[in-house]
């Protein structure tokens, strides 16, 4: 199992890093479920970074373009003009909320993977107890580690993810409200 996740493919300068060795040791102690959890957490944080980059770089340009087009219109009260404005608000809503549901689902998966790690770790402990007896606690320690580390990591990942998701959702909602107010205001 450890050969599957070895770090031999990394450059030697990164391999000698203490943090990387500590991370690899932690992941190996937690078992395969911890690697799956790490992949879910990595994917969720990639989506979070994408949303932050969108909010600070791409969305302001889109907003500016919509506002310029709206204020450049001579006529803003016809059904056609109001339909265009509502279309832009709907486009902003879709663009701002893109990937937020996926982040929410990934955050919800984290504690479930932690629980899966608990179950697999306890199965390992019971397997050791059945084969070796319950008199040697050192043999059971690795199973206990397999049971507790993914649970802890899943909970920490879920708490951090819930906080970040809530902040992103609020930031997107505020930007949408500001755009709508700006588009509803007169020249």
Automatic annotation (TrEMBL):
UniProt xrefs under InterPro entries: ExbB/TolQ_transport, MotA_ExbB_proton_chnl
Membrane topology: Multi-pass membrane protein
Single GO BP term: protein import
NAD listed as a keyword: no
Compartments, as annotated in UniProt: Cell membrane; Membrane
Domain (MotA/TolQ/ExbB proton channel) ranges: 71-174
A GO-annotated cellular component: plasma membrane
Superkingdom assignment: Bacteria
Presence of the UniProt keyword S-adenosyl-L-methionine in the record: no
This protein's UniProt keywords: Cell membrane, Membrane, Protein transport, Transmembrane, Transmembrane helix, Transport
Pfam families assigned to the protein according to its UniProt record, in alphabetical order: MotA_ExbB (PF01618)
Record-annotated membrane-spanning stretches: 33-57, 105-126, 146-168
Main subcellular localisation: membrane
Homology family: Belongs to the exbB/tolQ family.
Name the record gives this protein: MotA/TolQ/ExbB proton channel domain-containing protein
């Amino acid at each position: 199992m450890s050969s599957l996740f070895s770090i031999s493919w990394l450059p030697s300068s990164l391999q000698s890093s203490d943090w990387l060795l500590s991370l690899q040791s932690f992941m190996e102690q937690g078992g395969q479920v911890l690697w799956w959890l790490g992949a879910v957490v990595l994917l969720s944080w990639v989506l979070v970074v994408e949303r932050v980059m969108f909010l600070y770089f791409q969305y302001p340009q889109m907003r500016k373009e919509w506002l310029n087009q709206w204020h450049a219109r001579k006529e803003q009260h016809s059904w056609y003009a109001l339909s265009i404005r509502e279309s832009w608000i709907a486009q902003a809503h879709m663009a701002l909320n893109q990937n937020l549901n996926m982040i929410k689902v990934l955050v919800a998966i984290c504690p479930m993977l932690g629980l899966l790690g608990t179950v697999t770790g306890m199965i390992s402990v019971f397997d050791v107890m059945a084969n070796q007896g319950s008199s040697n606690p050192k043999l059971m320690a690795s199973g206990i580690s397999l049971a507790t580390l993914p649970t802890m990591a899943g909970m920490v990942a879920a708490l951090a993810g819930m906080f970040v998701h809530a902040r992103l959702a609020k930031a997107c909602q505020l930007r949408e409200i500001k755009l709508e107010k700006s588009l509803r205001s007169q020249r």
